[in-house]
Amino acid sequence: MSLTQAQILDRVTTLLQDGSYSSNTSKRWTAPELRQYLYDAQHEFIRLTEFPIVTSDVTIVEATSSFNRPSNPPLMNLKRARIENTSVEIPIVTSSVLDENRVVSGQIVDSNWQSQSGPIRAIVIEHNSSPTFRVYPTPTTSDHLFSATLVSQIPVFDVTGDSSTDVLSTTTGIITAIVDTSVIKFDGVIDPPRDRLTYNNTQADTDVPLVGSMYQEALVFGVAERAYLKENELRNVEKSGVFRQRFLEMVRYATQSESTNSMTRNSGASRKRIRVGWRWR
Description:
The protein is 25% helix and 16% strand. By secondary structure, it is of the alpha+beta class. The protein folds into 2 domains: 112 residues; 110 residues, no CATH class.
């Protein structure tokens, strides 16, 4: 079960031997200070572990090449881009790829590619923290929004199973166009707020962290680390370092165990098995 903000900070004040956060009896660390330490600890944990990964949408507008990063929720980085209601992925590249290559997604790249127009074939970002991204080429009102070259020339169908939401036009199962959608879904690491735990626009003690309950102990250590660096009579760099190490141990554990793929599933129906066969001569 997830801990609330108040429960996490009660554990911190117990470690600090400084009264109770919930009863507002802390003497050396004020409630606003402890909350700010908590928000910073959560942000650092998510930045280092790159979890959790969430999906955020951007609506593409024709004749426009530059767009703001997804903001609902905001993403710390952009790991993957897909066309809404499909499994069709759009490559994410840097401008140097387009500067140095004459062919991308099977089509010619103009020498002045920034003014090139047509169905979208790639997302262009300069660096992970860039506030904007470009679509290449610039979409037009006369063409389909996305290029059919984004998918292999094999039978591909939308993932919704509902023909009324189909965005893939096919001829005998071969993609001919991607139509009737203007939304790109980005997958990336959530960018947590720095003034509260969640995005509900409140600073409530009942809020639970964006970090899963399995790793919330790391937030206790992160707050204690910061508290012991405060300039007061209890400042203790050595104790702060101890809690820093415990925080980083949780970061390493999360980094090693959180990502899931076919190689990490080793129980139940996914359990690895070895078959031994005998051949008699």
